[in-house]
Write a structure and sequence with these properties.
The chain is an all-alpha fold. 73% of the residues lie in helices and 0% in strands. It has one domain.
């Protein structure tokens, strides 16, 4: 070995660990948990105001679905007359 060459240190393979994504997953889980807790607190706080909004949304979706079924029935009836 010449004077200019430095020995490279070798690390045991047991010290090398794959930690990519490990902290990221933990961070995502903690953020998700915080979000769920915040959402629950928000819903509890504004429950009386949210309930009528949710009921209106439910009724709107129900009417929309009924209208869609009526349109489908009319279209199917028109196709049935053409086949006969």
């Amino acid at each position: 070995m010449s004077n200019h060459e430095q020995p490279t240190p070798s690390h045991p393979k047991s010290d090398v660990r794959n930690t990519t994504g490990k902290n990221k997953q933990t961070l995502q889980d903690s953020v998700r948990t915080i979000f769920v807790v915040d959402l629950e607190e928000f819903c509890e706080k504004y429950y009386e105001k949210l309930l009528p909004i949710m009921a209106d949304k439910y009724e709107y979706e129900k009417r929309k679905k009924e209208k869609l079924e009526e349109v489908k029935a009319r279209l199917d009836f028109g196709n049935a007359r053409r086949r006969a």
